[in-house]
Write a structure and sequence with these properties.
about 65% helix; mainly alpha; 10 helices
C-alpha cells in the first residue's frame, strides 16, 4: 500500500505531506521494518530529482531555485537503520542519501558500512559518501581502506584522505 501511495504521489507536491504521515509510523514501530522501508523509499523519491541536478560531487543537491536541499528533519534515524537492512536496495538508498547529508554522524556510519558490507560497489559508494563529511579523526580508518586489496576501495579512500585537512591525512597520502 505504501509503494502504491508513493507511485500515485510521485511528481506531485504531496510527497512532503506523505512523509509527515509516514515518519511517525516508522519511528513509532521499529519492530515493523515495512514502515521504515517505505519511508526510506519516500526519502529517495523526495531527493532523487534534486540529486540528479547535482553536478559536483562536493556540492549538495539543489532545488528548482538552485538552493541546496536537505532531507526532512528526522530522516537520519531511519536511514541509519536502513544501513543494517538485509535488502541491498534499502542499504543503497541509505548510502546515497546519507552521503548527501554531509554530517559527521553519517560519515562514521558510512565508513563502517564501507569497512564491513559484502557488496563491493556499495562499500565504494559508502566510502565516497563518508569522504564528503569525514574529519581528520577518521583518517586512520581511511588509511586502512587505502591499503585494501580492492582497487576501487583504495581509490575512494585516497579521495577521502585528499579531501581532509590536517597533517595526518596529508602524511597518509605521501
Amino acid at each position: 500500500a505504501a509503494r502504491m501511495l508513493l507511485q500515485l504521489n510521485r511528481g506531485t507536491q504531496e510527497l512532503a505531506a506523505l512523509e509527515q504521515f509516514m515518519q511517525p509510523l516508522a519511528l513509532g514501530r521499529p519492530q515493523r521494518p515495512v514502515y521504515r522501508r517505505a519511508l526510506v523509499e519516500l526519502y529517495a523519491a523526495l531527493m532523487r530529482p534534486t540529486a540528479a541536478r547535482t553536478l559536483d560531487s562536493r556540492s549538495r543537491p539543489l532545488d528548482a531555485r538552485g538552493e541546496p536541499t536537505a532531507l526532512p528533519q528526522g530522516a537520519s534515524k531511519p536511514l541509519l537503520e536502513a544501513l543494517a537492512d538485509t535488502d541491498t536496495s534499502q542499504r543503497r538508498i541509505a548510502v546515497e542519501l546519507l552521503g548527501q547529508m554531509g554530517s559527521a554522524n553519517a560519515a562514521v556510519a558510512l565508513l563502517t558500512t564501507a569497512e564491513h558490507d559484502d557488496d563491493i560497489v556499495l562499500r565504494r559508494l559508502a566510502l565516497l559518501g563518508a569522504a564528503a563529511a569525514a574529519s581528520e579523526t577518521l583518517a586512520s580508518r581511511f588509511l586502512v581502506l587505502a591499503r585494501a586489496p580492492e582497487r576501487r576501495l583504495r581509490d575512494a579512500a585516497a579521495f577521502g584522505l585528499a579531501r581532509m585537512s590536517g597533517s595526518t591525512a596529508r602524511a597518509a597520502l605521501h
